[in-house]
Design brief:
The structure holds two protein chains of two kinds.
Chain A lengths: L1 H14 L3 H36 L17 H8 L1 H33 L5 H13 L2 H12 L4 H8 L13 H29 L3 H9 L4 H29 L3 H6 L1 H8 L4 H11 L3 H31 L5 H7 L1
Chain B lengths: L1 H25 L8 E6 L4 H18 L2 E6 L5 H10 L6 E4 L2 H9 L12 H7 L1 H5 L2 E2 L2 E2 L2 E7 L1 E5 H6 L9 H13 L3 E3 L7 H14 L2 H10 L5 H15 L19 H6 L3 E6 L3 H8 L9 E4 L14 E10 L6 H9 L2 H11 L2 E2 L11 H12 L3 E3 L1 H21 L5 H14 L1
Parallel strand pairs in B: 1-2, 1-3, 8-9, 11-13
Antiparallel strand pairs in B: 3-11, 4-5, 6-11, 6-12, 7-9, 7-10
Helix pairs in contact in B: 2-15, 4-17, 9-11, 9-17, 11-18, 17-18
Classes of the chains: A mainly alpha, B alpha/beta.
Chain lengths: 324, 426
């Protein structure tokens, strides 16, 4: 918006145009931006404001809330050990996703950036889990990983009966199971991003490195990784936000009630259980606000310290102009 | 400057458009006396066909067209709530009484039927089944079926395991569990993933441990300080310590598919299941040929030693239908219509359930259901499912705490604490 302003204002002032074309321009902007603004305000801003409002009430979800309780809901949430452990699970998932998926995705992308037979087939296979709906993935894995499911039967049949585990319900394994499924599901997305990043690196740099006698790993370390860094930072941002808001896979595989005892509950499943299923909509809205605030703080911190290198000039007007 | 004006213009457009949109949805249609909308929870098979048949017969007799909408059982409460807020409630909708109904009554969206239920229905049903729908002395629902709790079991698997008598005490039940284990099947199927089936065990023990007045008053005073609530938790912990439930019960569904707890009974993988009266129908739909399970038997939940509750008392639910506050008078006519013995008999047949009308109970032919019905009619008193009775808030917390305890990360105390905390929160 700022960029548009600096471009539009001098042009209008220089020509000293009469009011009519100016109004036409405004009309155009209004016409083009109007629908998007309406949708954004109605479905994003308004619900956030309403959630903040409802969070101050004890409200069963009928009619207009009238039982104002101030910060009671927030106090109850923050004192609830199951909420605190859910937050802990969320942050564990954030970090484990970065550690597990990042290096793997870069390796896959490097591999698939080479010319080799069956490359497009492998690309498709890695990307397929990302395209399948979460519900299908969740139902499929939960059937396979049940105690009497396919995986345990297979282990028994091949003589590995001692490996049989309660993959979903056992608190010591459940988080590992979840991380495996999340990595399997979302690594395709990371690989595609990394591949696109790799392909934007100019070929000449590799040629120059080759002439200078750089080894394969030196080339990757000195050229590929630094130039891939903006892509990695964007991917990490998307991964962090996705991990904080994780709901569907946990909800389908574990269900709302078992997730907490198995140690895979997230802030979103906590909100669904204690807000929607318990019929305490005021309380649930307060959880939603906390989830929003936590995500917002994480996003802002990340933007400030990691993403600002990439967005300098594009989003931060002043910094960009100075550089130019 | 320019930017600010553009923003103002855009906001003006936005607000005008929003007003226009609001204008579109603001007008509500006046209630049409010759049409009713009904939400029920039968999505397939005989149950759905039954309601279509009732609607057709009612239209033929009165000229009032009833539009039927099937709503998935688990979605019913949420959808009703949304509908109540948007002022778009169906005229007739499914209700299960207790605290959940009381929430709707508090919100003023349910019609008081006290004076509107026909004398015939009162005479045929008896007061007991209406009590589930009574909130502060007024009646808000027409029952269609009573669904008592009990153990559904496979007679063949019991015979294979050498169990000759239906267990009457907990010791005999423990004995049956050991025999079933020895015969190589899962002793008791439990779909704990949805929590409520696991909580039914706690309710069952509470029914035996707590005196009648404690249970009848709990929905109002929400006071869990009586020792019996702790005792019920301890009974549950002791029982669970014998590992009576199927392998992986924490991730087992209750009613969906062959791997669910009802599916384990239907496919002779597990010996018995503690469940409500609708289970015969659910098990029937999950057998390999989709027919009722031929060797299905039933017995009441065995009694624990020395509780304050009457050993013949039963827990159970009542399914029924309510009218929305602004429904036309044809709504209560419709309720009174399907409360007639003829339609109640057909209901029993279509749903494999015990009809609420005593006049229609002769239509029940399934031996397991007949046994259940006899026990129900002889019970000294009936207590509604505790989670229904206590309402969503406390009921949900109780259910979650029971699962936690069965998973080994909770105790008898933590069940009581969870219920008490939720009561304070709601």
């Amino acid at each position: 918006m700022t960029e548009t302003a600096t471009l539009v204002a001098p042009a209008g002032a220089a020509r000293r145009a009469p009011a009519r074309p100016d109004w036409r321009k405004r009309g155009e902007i209004t016409l083009l931006a109007g629908p998007a603004i309406i949708v954004f305000v109605t479905f994003v801003i308004l619900p956030v404001v309403m959630a903040a409002f409802y969070g101050f009430f004890r409200w069963k979800g009928f009619g207009f809330p009238d039982d104002f309780v101030g910060l009671d809901n927030y106090i109850a949430i923050l004192q609830d050990p199951t909420f605190r452990s859910a937050v802990g699970h969320n942050f564990f998932i954030v970090i484990a996703s970065l550690i597990l998926q990042g290096p793997l995705a870069i390796l896959f992308a490097l591999l698939m950036n080479q010319k080799m037979r069956g490359r497009s087939l492998i690309r498709v296979l890695i990307f397929v889990p990302y395209v399948i709906s979460e519900v299908v993935v969740g139902t499929g894995w939960s059937l396979m990983l049940q105690d009497a499911g396919a995986l345990n039967s297979l282990l028994e049949k091949v003589g590995l009966g001692s490996w049989v585990q309660s993959w979903i319900a056992s608190p010591s394994i459940a988080m590992g199971t979840l991380m495996f499924i999340i990595s399997w599901k979302y690594i395709g997305f990371a690989v595609i991003l990394m591949l696109a990043g790799l392909q934007s690196i100019p070929e000449e740099l590799y040629e120059a490195a080759a002439i200078d006698g750089a080894s394969f790993w030196q080339t990757q370390w000195r050229i590929t990784l630094p130039l891939l860094a903006p892509t990695i930072r964007i991917w990490a941002f998307l991964s962090i936000i996705g991990s904080l808001q994780l709901f569907d896979l946990v909800n389908i595989i574990w269900g709302q009630y078992v997730a907490a005892t198995a140690g895979t509950s997230t802030m979103a499943t906590y909100m669904y259980l204690n807000g929607h299923l318990a019929g305490n909509y005021g309380f649930g809205n307060a959880v939603a606000v906390l989830l929003f605030l936590i995500s917002l703080v994480v996003a802002l911190v990340y933007q400030r310290f990691a993403l600002n290198r990439d967005t300098a000039g594009a989003l931060t007007g002043d910094g960009g102009r100075k550089k130019r | 400057m320019n930017v600010r004006k553009t923003w103002l213009a855009a906001l003006a457009t936005a607000s005008v458009a929003t007003l226009a949109l609001a204008g579109c949805s603001g007008g509500s249609e006046p209630a049409d006396d010759n049409a009713l909308e009904m939400w029920h929870n039968s999505t397939t098979g005989d149950g759905k066909a039954y309601w279509d048949e009732v609607a057709a017969a009612f239209e033929e007799e009165t000229g009032v067209k009833v539009t039927m909408t099937s709503v998935q059982n688990e979605d019913m409460d949420g959808k009703l709530q949304t509908a109540s807020n948007s002022g778009d409630m169906p005229d007739v909708f499914m209700a299960r009484g207790g605290g959940k109904l009381a929430d709707f009554v508090d919100a003023g969206v349910v019609k008081d039927l006290t004076e509107l239920i026909s004398d015939d229905a009162h005479a045929a049903y008896g007061e007991a089944s209406f009590s589930a729908f009574t909130v502060e002395g007024a009646t808000y629902g027409m029952p269609v079926a009573v669904l008592p709790q009990g153990m559904f079991y496979s007679e063949d698997l019991f015979a294979d395991a050498g169990i000759t008598e239906e267990p009457v005490t907990i010791d005999e039940l423990n004995d049956a569990v050991e025999k079933l284990k020895a015969s190589g099947v899962e002793p008791i199927a439990l779909g704990a993933k949805a929590a409520w089936p696991a909580a039914h065990w706690y309710y069952g023990f509470a029914l035996r441990a707590c005196a009648e007045d404690v249970l009848q008053n709990i929905a109002v005073d929400l006071d869990f300080s009586d020792r019996c609530w702790l005792q019920a938790g301890q009974d549950l912990v002791d029982f669970a310590a014998t590992e009576p439930f199927n392998n992986g019960f924490l991730t087992t569904d209750a009613q969906e598919g062959a791997g669910s707890s009802a599916g384990l009974i239907a496919n002779h993988k597990a010996g018995m299941e503690l469940m409500g009266g609708w289970n015969a129908g659910v098990i029937g739909s999950l057998t390999p040929d989709g027919q009722p399970l031929a060797d299905l038997g039933w017995f009441p939940l065995p009694a624990t030693d020395g509780g304050a509750g009457d050993p013949t008392a039963m827990m159970g639910g009542v399914d029924g239908y309510a009218c929305s506050a602004d429904s036309p008078s044809t709504c209560e006519d419709f309720l009174n219509f399907f409360a007639q013995a003829e339609w109640q008999e057909k209901y029993a047949d279509a749903f494999d359930a015990i009809p609420a009308s005593k006049e229609a109970q002769s239509a029940v032919t399934d031996p397991a259901l007949q046994e259940m019905m006899a026990a129900y009619n002889e019970a000294s008193y009936i207590v509604l499912w505790l989670d229904t009775l206590l309402g969503q808030n406390v009921g949900n917390a109780l259910n979650a705490a029971v699962v936690e305890t069965l998973a080994g990360s909770g105790t008898a105390e933590s069940i009581v604490d969870a219920a008490t905390q939720a009561a304070a929160r709601g």
